[in-house]
TrEMBL record:
Pfam family, one: AICARFT_IMPCHas
Physiological role: Bifunctional enzyme that catalyzes the last two steps of purine biosynthesis. Acts as a transformylase that incorporates a formyl group to the AMP analog AICAR (5-amino-1-(5-phospho-beta-D-ribosyl)imidazole-4-carboxamide) to produce the intermediate formyl-AICAR (FAICAR). Also catalyzes the cyclization of FAICAR to IMP.
GO CC annotation, single: cytosol
Organism: Ramalina farinacea
Catalytic activity line of the entry: IMP + H2O = 5-formamido-1-(5-phospho-D-ribosyl)imidazole-4-carboxamide; (6R)-10-formyltetrahydrofolate + 5-amino-1-(5-phospho-beta-D-ribosyl)imidazole-4-carboxamide = 5-formamido-1-(5-phospho-D-ribosyl)imidazole-4-carboxamide + (6S)-5,6,7,8-tetrahydrofolate
Residue ranges of the TM segments: none
A GO term, aspect molecular function: phosphoribosylaminoimidazolecarboxamide formyltransferase activity
Family annotation (NCBIfam families): PRK07106.1
GO terms (BP aspect): 'de novo' IMP biosynthetic process
SUPFAM superfamilies: Cytidine deaminase-like, Methylglyoxal synthase-like
Protein name, UniProt field: Bifunctional phosphoribosylaminoimidazolecarboxamide formyltransferase/IMP cyclohydrolase
Length: 492
């Protein structure tokens, strides 16, 4: 028996030295030694350490093993972990979390083995899912800002964006749809408009979100956030007034994370699943309007995409890069308007995202924007009631009907089938874009997209149905411009 230094030295010289790092190896070693000598193959294997013994008598070395250096590395890891917990658990290198994915999963922590944590807690206490959302949402807005040179925002729930947007100036109608038309100074803050758009993409799903913002949070943006039900925020900086406003949310328990804007993770990433380590190169593909969407497949005579289409496809595609797959995204005016995430079939993604886009468009109708509410109705209740009205789910009997109608001074009339058809025809006049994280296996995705005003599609090719998909785009009225985006963007 010896210390870790001698073990390392012996393992390095395994061509001439047999190294035994675990008593579990002794019987096999003695059995082979009794036959005369230790074979070269055995010395190579004895330079490995048994992780757990499952060998049979006839095949004692066919077992799960790790390098002897792993044995000594585990010792080093234990020592460094002890010191990290003892001296750097104040957020320098490690931070305790409230619990893991669920409350019974304790303890939980976040840590780095080199350098310092690139996040700093300014208020509140993070949980495991808060960080999963934060650490997916932050690179999304960082990449959007880099690609489009505009402030960007994302609203995350359960490790997928409910919405994402850049700071395109909002019209009065868009402000009403996003419930921010009463915010003073909104026009002067592109960041506030970006978050209003991101939250307004799907206000029902954004309830209790984690927010990511690409720029320093200003007072106007903080005031927008202060009225919404949200679990936390991550951004590179906060003005003094913004931090004061946000620190009062949730009785002072609102999670405020400051992220190091210059931090770049290592090229490889590792996760542990069922006791096994999976490692891959980080998905560091760069999406940009200039380089990603320049392969127009149809129409053949295209001279390139208009600027608004490139912008919106960039928003949709970067959003998909951080969305649980399969995923499809509709976008317009610099924001997500419908996102279908985590479905096993692509057509269900397209239908789900399309239904959300249609709902978003119905929320633009004057009837949905001019509802007469009773005093004191909460924003979340308004959001849910508008969703019921716009998605044709208005309750017609019983307690649910009573709860719905008590919100209004004047109960809004339901949309008739003809009214819906007429208003959806107006969506056909919009230049909606659609992005997909992988190829379309059938033309039904294109056919569904046309119903929601899609004029541009960007997706990788490689399906046996590529030709049929292109023909479906060309047959659409009006024809759909199809861009080969070239890169699959699965995210899990």
């Amino acid at each position: 028996m010896c210390g870790v230094t001698l073990l390392r030295a012996a393992a390095k010289n395994h061509a001439r030295v047999t190294v035994l790092s675990d008593p579990e190896d002794y019987p096999d070693f003695l059995q082979e030694l009794s036959k005369g000598e230790i074979a070269e193959k055995s010395r190579q294997l004895y330079a490995l350490k048994v992780s757990f013994t499952t060998a049979s008598e006839t095949n004692p070395l066919t077992q799960n093993r790790i390098q002897a250096f792993e044995h000594t590395a585990s010792y080093d890891d234990a020592i460094s972990g002890f010191f990290r917990k003892k001296y750097a658990a104040d957020g320098t290198q490690q931070l305790s979390l409230r619990y893991g994915t669920n409350p019974h999963q304790k303890p939980a922590s976040v840590f780095v083995k080199e350098g310092q944590l690139p996040i700093k807690v300014l208020c509140g206490a993070p949980g495991y899912v808060n960080l999963l959302d934060s650490l997916n949402a932050w690179p999304l807005v960082k990449e959007l800002k880099k690609a489009l040179n505009m402030p960007a925002a994302a609203s995350f729930k359960h490790v997928s964006p409910a919405g994402a947007a850049v700071g395109v100036r909002m019209s009065k109608q868009e402000q009403e749809v996003c419930m921010v038309d009463d915010i003073k100074g909104l026009e002067q803050s592109a960041l506030a408009q970006a978050y209003a758009r991101a939250r307004g993409s799907d206000r029902v799903s954004s309830y209790g979100d984690v927010i990511a913002l690409s720029d320093e949070v200003d007072e106007v943006t903080a005031r927008v956030i202060s009225r919404e039900v949200s679990d936390g925020i991550i951004a590179p900086a906060f003005s003094a007034k913004a931090l004061e406003i946000l620190s009062k949310k949730k009785g002072g328990k609102y999670l405020v994370l400051q992220v190091d804007e210059g931090y770049e993770p290592q090229g490889n990433e590792t996760r542990t699943v069922y006791g096994m380590n999976l490692q891959q190169q980080r998905n560091d593909i760069q999406i940009s309007p200039k380089d990603t969407f320049n392969t127009v497949v149809t129409p053949n005579d295209s001279t390139g995409l208009p600027a608004h289409a490139s912008r919106d496809l960039t928003v949709a595609t970067i959003a998909l890069k951080y969305t649980q797959s399969n995923s499809v995204c509709y976008a317009l005016n610099g924001q997500v308007i419908g996102l279908g995430a985590g479905q096993q079939s692509r057509i269900h993604c397209t239908r789900l995202a399309g239904a959300k886009a249609d709902n978003w468009w119905m929320r633009n109708h004057a009837r949905a924007r001019n509802i007469k509410w009773k005093p004191g109705v909460k924003r979340a209740d308004k959001t849910n009631a508008i969703d019921l009205l716009c998605s044709d789910q208005v309750p017609r009997q019983g307690m649910e009907k009573d709860e719905y109608e008590k919100l209004f001074e004047e109960v809004p009339a339901e949309f008739s089938a003809e009214e819906r058809t007429d208003w959806m025809e107006e969506l056909q006049k919009q230049d909606v874009v659609l992005a997909s994280d992988a190829f379309f296996p059938f033309i039904d995705n294109v056919q569904r997209a046309t119903r929601s005003g899609v004029k541009y599609i960007a997706a990788p090719m490689g399906s046996q149905a590529d030709d049929a998909v292109i023909q479906a785009c060309e047959a659409a009225k009006p024809p759909i411009c199809y861009v080969d985006q070239k890169t699959r963007l699965f995210h899990h």
